[in-house]
Specification:
This protein has 319 residues and is an alpha/beta fold. It has eleven helices and 14 strands.
């Protein structure tokens, strides 16, 4: 039987997710949005491409949670994106309210689903989604690390004039300006990036510039688009997580996961490498961090904690 994948939010990311999932035939798709017409229109449009692209799945659009019942995977993008000049944190108040509604909807209809949250500000919203829904912590994760890592690898590949496949790296911590590019674990064609700096293949300043550009990667796109934020790369990243769960691929992916002492932190969601398989988050991988990475990771967690404190002020039930 085909898997059932529900996309809560049929906006820019939701629509792109539906299209990618259809092309990969990962499962039947339910596009849910409070704006039912958008969900229905996009579902029908993508379905009409099936004879051309030769995929065979069902796609529907709805604003009724009953239609999402017993989903295997739910990807949440419901919420408001940034406008130029806004930070992700500016979205907190409005997106918290939306996520509360979503949590109530999904816990009633799909309590066993694997839930991937993309709505910003990511780490705090995924934590709120888990608290409001009460669903298992290993089944609720946030997408950000794959995207941030992908941006970093792309920028490096452009600078080094190498295919992206030759570069391995990842970005951890919170999904904000405090995110941490793991330079100690960054490898180019099997060689540590720090060696490339020593050899003068890439200047230290250039590398720092790329790290900064990665941190501001979302804002760069928001500025270009003027309306809305990035959606192709965020959707591709969400699909990679869903696929690892549905096919039990046990991929190691940087995701916002619930920490229970790993890296010295607990009771908080933050970006760490996790193994995603058929049980959800099957393991949090603890890497050896350099002193600098450790200190930057702690700063990043502090930023997430501060924002969660702000969320608790908005809704004391989150305490
Ligand atoms: P957009 O195109 O506006 O789509 C959001 C959709 O959510 C709209 O169609 C709304 O109608 C719908 N919606 C609003 N309230 C509800 C509700 N209560 N229930 C169901 N649907 C609702 O935005 P988008 O797709 O570009 O972005 C969605 C979210 O992802 C935003 O919060 C972005 O900031 C965030 N985002 C996160 C990343 C990460 O890397 C974490 C990257 C890019 C965007």
């Amino acid at each position: 039987m085909k898997k059932k994948i529900t996309l809560i939010g049929a906006g820019q990311i939701g629509g792109t997710l539906a299209h990618l999932i259809a092309l990969k035939e990962l499962g039947n798709v339910v596009l849910f949005d409070v704006a039912a017409g958008i969900a229905k229109g996009k579902a029908l449009d993508i379905a009409q491409s099936s004879p051309v692209n030769k995929f065979n799945i069902d796609l529907i659009g709805t604003d009724n949670y009953e239609d999402t019942k017993n989903s295997d995977v739910i990807i949440v993008t419901a919420g408001v994106p940034r406008k130029p000049g806004m930070t992700r944190d500016d979205l907190l108040g409005i997106n918290l309210k939306i996520i509360k509604q979503v949590a109530e909807g999904i816990k009633k209809t799909s309590p066993d689903a694997f839930v991937i949250c993309i709505t910003n500000p990511l780490d705090v919203i995924v934590m709120a989604l888990q608290k409001y829904s009460g669903m298992p912590k290993n089944k609720i994760v946030g997408m950000a690390g794959i995207l941030d890592s992908s941006r970093f690898i792309y920028f490096l590949s452009q600078e080094l004039k190498l295919p992206v496949q030759k570069i391995k790296s990842f970005v951890l911590g919170g999904h904000g300006d405090s995110m941490v590019a793991m330079l100690g674990s960054t490898e180019v064609d099997g060689k540590k990036i720090k060696e490339l700096v020593k050899e003068g293949i890439i200047q230290k300043e250039k590398l720092e510039e790329i790290v900064e550009r990665t941190k501001k990667g979302g804002a760069e796109i928001v500025k270009f688009l003027e309306k809305g934020s990035a959606f192709y790369a965020p959707a591709a990243s969400g699909v990679e997580m869903a696929e690892s769960y549905l096919k039990d691929l046990k991929k190691q992916l940087p995701c916002a996961a619930y920490l229970t002492g790993e890296y010295g932190f607990k009771e908080i969601y933050a970006g760490v490498p996790v193994i995603i398989g058929k049980s959800g988050v099957e393991k949090i991988v603890e890497l050896d961090l350099t002193d600098e990475e450790n200190s930057n990771f702690s700063k990043s967690i502090d930023a997430v904690k501060q924002l969660f404190d702000a969320a608790k002020k908005i809704d004391p039930k989150l305490a």
